[in-house]
Amino acid sequence: MEYLDNLPPMDLMRSEKMTFVQLIIPVESAHRAISYLGQLGLLQFRDLNDEKSPFQRTFVNQVKRCAEMSRKLRFFKDQIHKAGLLPSPHPASQPDIELEELEMQLAEHEHELIEMNSNTEKLQQTYNELLEFKMVLQKASDFLVSSRSNSTVQEREMVENVYSNDHYADTASLLEQEMQPGPSVQSGVRFVSGIICKSKVLTFERMLFRATRGNMFFNQAAADDQILDPSSNEMVEKTVFVVFFSGEQARTKILKICEAFGANCYPVPEDVTKRMQITREVSSRLSELETTLDAGTRHRDKALTSIGFQLAKWMNMVGREKAVYDTLNMLNFDVTKKCLVGEGWCPIFAKAKIQEALQRATFDSNSQVGIIFHVMDAVEPPPTYFRTNRFTSAFQEIVDAYGVANYQEANPAVYTVVTFPFLFAVMFGDWGHGICLLLGALVLIARERKLGSQKLGSFMEMLFGGRYVLLLMSIFSIYCGLIYNEFFSVPFHIFGESAYKCRDSSCSDARSIGLIKSRDPYPFGVDPSWRGSRTELPFLNSLKMKLSILLGVVQMNLGIILSYFNARFFGNSLDIKYQFVPQMIFLNCLFGYLSLLIVIKWCSGSQADLYHVMIYMFLSPFEDLGENKLFWGQGVLQVILLLCAVVAVPWMLFPKPFILKRLHTERFQGRTYGLLGTSDMNIDDEPDSARQHQEDFNFSEEFVHQMIHSIEFVLGAVSNTASYLRLWALSLAHSELSTVFYEKVLLLAWGYENIIIRLVGLAVFAFATAFILLMMETLSAFLHALRLHWVEFQNKFYHGDGYKFRPFSFASLTDDDD
Question: How does it sit in the membrane (predicted)?
Fold first, then answer.
């Protein structure tokens, strides 16, 4: 035991030792002190104003100012994005400015940008109207000219052939009246011209037809140019239309429908000379507006570019200021003493750094009074803080996703670094697929610096964060693939010749019959001659199933051993005597014994049926084992192990609750009565008072809790061991899927002489390998390995009821903003 105590501590085995501290900061140095602590990032403040709303806190006005500046900066960022400009990733080096000066600059820039946007919007609207007017004049002129020429021909035909009577004007239709010569106003036919969105044309025409009861003629033509929509800033396709009608009532209806559909109507004179003159004037004004708009856009882009050079620096500055004032709002403000009082947690190793930062803040702010920093006792448990690096952080996140470790509790991440990728590889074992995963992991690691500075999608961000997990998973997959001797399901003679050969020269099918053992066993992994043999599946099933049980028992024993180190660290001897010891006895008397039988059977080459041995160990423990006997004294040993396992169950269940009750009674016997005579003491306010301890301890609750824990362990020992058989099932499924794709797709296609069939088969094989075996199977094996760690391994010792250490840090603030 002394040897264990003298061992050097592991970095990740226990969380960092924390201490609860109090700060008393003079007002004149408070802002600078919090800023220096934010740069250090090693102190987690506790909110002392939790009962106050955000609007009742001391520095609420400063927070509002910072929020308003953040809104303006987001507005600048949106404007830069809309203009198609890129903010400079490296801000220009300019002297630092104060927050008040920055606030004035931001207000000026915002006012200038809003004014420029308003002017540009008005000019763009005028430009759009003139452009629409120009297109309406062009298209409507074509309609009117064609209508006039058609009317001349129709008039001549009507005079010569058909309409020779005097009553024609009374009976002619609206379209025929339109085609008569002379001014349209004299004949009663009028028209409305305009432009409308192309997507609304069909509905618009149908509505006009119904409103006028068919007494109208609708002409349309697609506009030559797309028009910029100022509201959405997108180019929109539009259609020019001309509606011929008769009567003032119809005109009123048509104009209302145009207004409802958002169609813009423009007056087009019938006189050709006037149309040409108006067209020239519109074109002249359009060219002037284009020049003005271009000049305005250049001026606006220049202003946005100058803002973009400083945008990142300003956003960082405002974000830091807001975080500082939010933190100051968590402190108690004492008006009489002119100081702020704060409390929080920090690692013990950071005390010297924090004191140095506070002294620097006092000196830089020219304060006459120093900042008081002292350690206090805390009632609440400390936060959990593990110092991780790029390699270990992903494994720590896997554990934290289940639950954050209690303070100073044994950390499963230490062992997860190795056991997680190894159990994944047991299910994914194929060194061809492992090489593919390895190449992907190496690409992510090689481009680590570039990808780390970019904003990635959710999937790529998850993949990049787990790049080192993927690296170890691929390396272990190659190792297990070499043991299984599978390269895309194909075996290779890597480590020498097979131990089997044909019995004689007449052996025609060496894959299935006539094989005899001729030399020493294959030196590493599965002999390639098992591939394709009649006993391949029974052999591999037996091998992988037994390996799964061995790995499961080893990992569950590791979990129970870690519970011993937890109990020893926290000085809980009851957990060692009445939980660790009976749990080790129960698990190893049953499943540890099964693992021993597996190893003995492998070493001796016995044909004993282990199913029969384990079943009849419970049903008839005194029966003779017969041919299933593996070693001398096995029957006696089985009886002893069974009795030990039976005794371990009440050992776990009964002693601990009764011992706790006795200790509690002895500890507080007589003290409760002694406190009755003290009237000046409030017992409820004292954490160590007898009354609170009396209320905290409940024997029936403790007994029920222990009973649940014992039953859960006994049943879990069986179910958890069976759960590790997923290693066998997933490995078998991966191997069989890989075999099916290789034999039924690639080899089948390669059997044809046609090059096209071969290429198609190769493409299908590559697609199935990439998306099914390398993506879906990887995800499946990952999730099953996750389950084995969270449930089967961690439930033996890990509580996970803690909370993370979240210090006030400008670095984490930048990550959140990005």
Answer: Multi-pass membrane protein
